[in-house]
Amino acid sequence: MQATQPVPAGAPGQGRRPADGGGFLSDVKALPGRVSLRLRLTVLYGLLFFMAGGLLLFVTYLLVGSILDSVFPPGYVVQTPRGDIIDPAAIKDLAMRQLVSRSLVALAGVGIIALVLGYFVADRALGSLQRVTATARRLSESTLHERIALQGPDDEIKELADTFDAMLERLGQAFDSQRRFVANASHELRTPLAINRTLLEVALGDPEVSDDLRTVGRTLLATNARHERLIEGLLLLARSERELTARVRVDVAEVATAVLEHMRRREQPHDVAVRPELASGATLGDPVLLEHLVANLVDNAIKHNDDGGEVWVRTGVLDGVTTVQVENTGPVVPAYEVDRLFEPFRRLNADRVESAKGAGLGLSIVRSVVNAHRGIVHASPRSGGGLVVTVRLPAA
Questions:
Q1: Fewest C-beta in 10 Å: which of 83, 162, 298, 382?
Q2: What is the mean pLDDT of the segment spanning 288-311?
């Protein structure tokens, strides 16, 4: 598969940073910008050990000096068996020098061992915090069911993990309540809209309807159709934000082929040339949601285009990841507007009134479906106008 733009591993607002595996080398590499807590604790343990060792050496030096002074009082003379006279001060000076030099060597050796042991002690003590961090990095709206469930002594770290779990429980309940509200409200609104559409179509089917009434009826039908699209989009958005429980093997090339075939049978608002470049790429997920994902990308690329423009649809495996990429010509998209296009009801240049371009949920649904499949979506402005949207999904 050909890709026009490399996809960064952590696109702002869309990607996830992988959990740090840890280790001494990673701590050392972090030194120029940020020193890890493990390394700081290790250095602190080492400094405390050397300070305590230095203090102990100083006290030992004073005690040994005091003992030697009591053993060799002033005026005391040491005589060897051969009759030689030795100055006690020389003996004391030699003993003190030997004590200091050998104690320093011992302190350095034991200090190095203490540093190594201190690092592993700090690593073990912070292991629980690393688990909290790794869980927080994995979380999204669709993975709020995960819990740390830390086992161990009832200390401050376990209290932090339990508090974090309680917060996740409250967040999960809040998101579930929001999704249920959207789904229920959407279902309740579909029935009156369907009734309105039926009544309008029956009324417009009467050959005796005046031209003015027919014009009003068609306007109401168009407004009703826009509201129906909005409701369908909200339902799909609520569904895509749920955690997927059943996953099947899906080939994105087959999904894109089905979507493009359906698009060909529909009347398009612009004379746009669609150029497929489809290669096989499998992922595990929901086929219906993946079909909506590709359909929304292609539909947006066609709607937000120029007459005589082009759309490129690419699928395949890139760097071991199943990839779907849709590129289109069209108006110039400022780089600072790209991230906001993934928000619900957002359009380029804050366009909220042009009903022909949909309800403004297309890219929001794309992002929700991608998150539900634990993938990454990244968009970037195309040189000369248009947009390049790349979706990366875990390969099956």
A1: 83
A2: 89
